[in-house]
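Quick review question:
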């Protein structure tokens, strides 16, 4: 089996080195991919991938780990595939699989399309011999293959008929891909696309067996789990039946490692309705105060998508009804109120922040929620808490937990604003569980003197501010939310990384590992644990993510900054040196990338 897929495996190995190509360079390579392909992998330009792969190796200091020929894509192609003459390194490299009827037939439907300045010279360098009808015979990794030429490429595959069909084709897959599918593979070093609908059709029996196995495992836990598994199965089937295609891509350049995932739904399907999205070029962090964030996020909520997704929550009604003592009416009301709260969402943005050790704990959370009616939304949470506390569930842990959960309307006046409080007195709960004094003291250090407190207030008629932390933190959140400014957008890291993400967005997220590391150290100190001997330089380089979508497509772009990759490598080397008894070298702030290569 490995030998049958050997050629594909080699090309996959070669494509471990990548670098972004311009969007305009991607439009032509798509025309090289066979129109009826059910799978393809595309490198838009071998030379760009090669040049910038070598540059990235130098930037990350990985030369010793990737000696020749593995430090050059073109050299690897020459060494492993004998493509030493006639290769056009400015062209696109394609691996494609045409429609097949079963898994065993797939290798026969696989082709590799190689760009060539001199197709015949390329095949001759590989030891190929020309036969009748313009077909060639060539050995690839010890396996006999068939090949054919066009004016600017070589097509190689197991079966002569498949090779001939691809070489003679006058249309590419760009003629049938939607605009969203094309955009999902633009500007990438390596783009992978799969016809989800056809693949699911081919492997439907295996997929159904897999789903049924998962459901059976979930049902083993009893009636409640059985109800949950039925809902999970229904949602899985909605996704499976609604997928049209999927794509994945990678870029590795001066700005860092970029990943992109694209998902396209069948128009009009339930899955399309659940995943539809709206986008904007405006800030999605409006109202959030500047902070030492661990995680910051913001998104637009599509009302129709939320409405469609609510059907998946019906399984929770059945789960509650399966609990002894819970009436059908109570289960319906409880889940119904929660669905109303979620359905009212129009936008959400927030952050989880590290704070200086003190009476308010080690972390805080801010959230701003856009709803149709802020006061009604807050009242809905109060009602939900009371109904949950009233559930006749005969479970000691449930009863004890609910006994320490309280909701108080107008509990505080913060800066002239009435604020509700939801408090889970985890300190009292810990003491009732006979936790020792050291454990209780550690919990106080992490959560603060008041335990876990969530504060709610209406900022205006449509907007709600939700805070976890102290009253000072809530006051800052209220003031920032009312200002309408996007203070967090001014963060140096968010500004830098956000500028490299797509402008048209339905959601964003930033994760700052510098802040996370410091938070972890504060946590270790709170619990009197050993503080990790890890240091990161000041980088202002969070991992960034942007989502986008439309009526039947969705896309996620992730950027891991070069500075973070360099620092992570330095830390890894330092830790390896420490374990090996070598002297530790402190991590230095990453400098400018090594000169050379095309600017993005």
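Suggested answer, residue by residue:
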């Amino acid at each position: 089996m490995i030998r049958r897929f050997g050629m594909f495996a080699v090309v996959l190995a070669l494509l471990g080195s990548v670098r972004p190509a311009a969007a305009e360079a991607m439009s032509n390579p798509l025309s090289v991919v066979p129109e009826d392909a059910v799978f393809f992998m595309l490198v838009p330009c071998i030379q760009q991938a090669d040049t910038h792969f070598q540059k990235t190796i130098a930037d990350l200091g990985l030369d010793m780990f990737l000696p020749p020929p593995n430090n050059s894509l073109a050299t690897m192609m020459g060494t492993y595939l004998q493509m030493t003459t006639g290769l056009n390194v400015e062209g696109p490299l394609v691996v494609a699989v045409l429609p097949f009827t079963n898994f065993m037939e797939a290798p026969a439907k696989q082709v590799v399309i190689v760009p060539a300045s001199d197709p015949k010279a390329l095949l001759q360098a590989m030891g190929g011999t020309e036969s009748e009808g313009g077909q060639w015979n060539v050995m690839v990794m010890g396996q006999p293959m068939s090949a054919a030429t066009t004016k600017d490429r070589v097509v190689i595959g197991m079966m002569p008929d498949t090779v001939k069909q691809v070489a003679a084709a006058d249309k590419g897959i760009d003629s049938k891909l939607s605009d969203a599918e094309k955009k999902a593979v633009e500007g990438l070093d390596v783009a992978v696309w799969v016809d989800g609908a056809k693949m699911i059709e081919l492997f439907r029996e295996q997929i159904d067996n897999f789903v049924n196995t998962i459901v059976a495992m979930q049902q083993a836990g009893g009636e409640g789990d059985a109800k949950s598994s039925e809902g999970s199965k229904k949602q899985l089937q909605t996704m499976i039946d609604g997928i049209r295609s999927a794509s994945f891509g990678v870029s590795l350049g001066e700005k860092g490692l970029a990943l992109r995932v694209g998902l396209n739904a069948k128009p009009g399907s339930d899955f399309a309705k659940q995943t539809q999205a709206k986008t904007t070029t405006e800030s999605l962090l409006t109202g959030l105060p500047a902070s030492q964030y661990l995680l910051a996020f913001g998104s637009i909520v599509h009302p129709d998508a939320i409405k469609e997704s609510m059907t998946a929550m019906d399984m929770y009604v059945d789960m509650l009804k399966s609990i002894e003592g819970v009436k059908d009416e109570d289960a319906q009301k409880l889940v119904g109120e929660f669905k109303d709260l979620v359905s009212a969402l129009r936008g959400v943005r927030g952050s989880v922040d590290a704070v200086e050790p003190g009476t308010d704990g080690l972390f805080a959370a801010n959230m701003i929620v856009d709803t149709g009616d802020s006061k009604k939304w807050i009242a809905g949470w109060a009602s939900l808490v009371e109904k949950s506390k009233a559930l006749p569930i005969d479970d000691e842990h449930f009863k004890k937990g609910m006994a320490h959960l309280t909701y108080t309307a107008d509990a505080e006046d913060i800066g002239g604003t009435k604020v509700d409080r939801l408090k889970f007195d985890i300190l009292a709960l810990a003491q009732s569980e006979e936790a020792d004094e050291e454990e209780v003291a550690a919990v106080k250090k992490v959560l603060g003197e008041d335990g876990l407190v969530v504060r709610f207030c209406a900022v205006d008629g449509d907007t709600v501010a939700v805070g976890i932390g102290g009253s000072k933190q809530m006051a800052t959140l209220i003031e920032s939310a009312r200002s309408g400014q996007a203070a967090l957008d001014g963060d140096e890291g968010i500004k830098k990384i956000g500028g490299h993400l797509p402008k048209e967005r339905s959601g964003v997220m930033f994760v700052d590992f510098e802040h996370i590391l410091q938070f972890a150290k504060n946590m270790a100190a709170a619990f009197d644990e050993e503080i990790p001997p890890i240091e990161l330089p000041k980088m202002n380089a969070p991992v960034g993510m942007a989502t986008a979508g439309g009526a039947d497509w969705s896309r996620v772009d992730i950027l891991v900054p070069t500075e973070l990759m360099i620092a992570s490598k330095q830390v890894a080397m330092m830790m390896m040196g420490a374990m090996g008894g070598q002297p530790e070298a402190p991590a230095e702030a990453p400098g400018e990338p090594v000169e050379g290569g095309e600017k993005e």
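Why it works: The longest helix spans residues 223-242. Residues 6-196 form one domain.
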